[in-house]
Amino acid sequence: MSHVFVADLSAAVAGSHITLDSDESHHAVRVRRVRIGEQVELVDGLGTRATGTVSIVGKSECAIEVGGVANEPSLTPRLTVVQALVKRDRSDQAMELLTEAGVDTVVPWAAARSQSSDIPAKWPRIATESSKQSRRARFPVIAPAHSTTAVGGLIAETVAAGGLALLCHESARTPIADVISASGALSEVVIVVGPEGGLTDEELAAFTDAGAQPVIMGPSVMRAATAGAAAACIVSALTNRWRGGSPR
């Protein structure tokens, strides 16, 4: 398996040379210990992937000769997870898992029972590192923090446009798989995950009034940091997102 590095691929064509920035060069040379002639992959986080051969290795420099470039289309349906902000260690885990699950957009939500109202400073770095680890060419978008009112608006807009909004809640009786299977073709799915302390009655009412469908994933109650990724995987497996395997 070749290593994956992040680079600006806006001018990449077969035969061109891409020099990694200082951080990626350090990672390639000092951590991954790449060698001249080694095959690697480059991604830009925006959907472009290039394959190439390491052509220069210096103390603080690494360059790759591009062999091929491809743009990978976005997966359908588009998948957004509204993630209630949780305590720091769980929050980092949530972002890592959501990225590995292939979520397109993460919407941080300052819920009434959230233990934090600030987006963790490490989230962008975690999203990048987890994208490289999971070999994503498109990195997840981290939206600005949303209030409960803003999340309700997002749900209403999604449903009005023909999309599906799912509210993970332990009191629900409808399995998420049943809702997906009965929905037919979808262009957008929004999944809402509450905090460790659960949703308030007001939040539950606001989201269901906006059009969200309360769902369960199975007999086990999952933690706030893991529920979003698990729900995303179910949606991806039951829609076209994961059909056909890797685009690479």
What is the C-alpha radius of gyration, as a whole number of Å?
A: 20 Å
Mean pLDDT: 94
> How many structural domains?
2
- The name of the CATH superfamily of the largest domain reads SPOUT methyltransferase, trefoil knot domain
**CATH level-two architecture of the largest domain:** 3-Layer(aba) Sandwich
Which sequence of strands runs across the widest sheet? 8-7-6-10-9-11
Strand residue content: 15-25%
Helix content: 25-40%
Q: At the first level of CATH, what is the class of the largest domain?
A: Alpha Beta
Helix/strand/pairing category: alpha/beta
Total strands: the figure is 11
**CA(first)-CA(last) distance:** 13 Å
Order of helices and strands: EEHEEEEHEHEHEHEHEH
Shape type:
elongated
Write down the CATH topology of the largest domain: Alpha/beta knot
Biggest pleated sheet: 6 strands, parallel
List the helices and strands and how they pair.
Layout: E1 3-6, E2 17-19, H1 22-31, E3 39-43, E4 48-57, E5 62-71, E6 78-84, H2 88-100, E7 105-109, H3 123-133, E8 141-142, H4 148-160, E9 164-168, H5 176-181, E10 188-193, H6 201-210, E11 213-215, H7 224-238
Parallel strand pairs: 1-3, 6-7, 6-10, 7-8, 9-10, 9-11
Antiparallel strand pairs: 2-5, 3-4, 4-5
Helix pairs in contact: 2-3, 2-7, 4-6
Question: Which characteristics define this entry?
Answer:
elongated; five-stranded mixed β-sheet; Alpha/beta knot; six-stranded parallel β-sheet; alpha/beta; 7 helices; single chain; 2 domains; Ribosomal Protein L25, Chain P; 248 residues
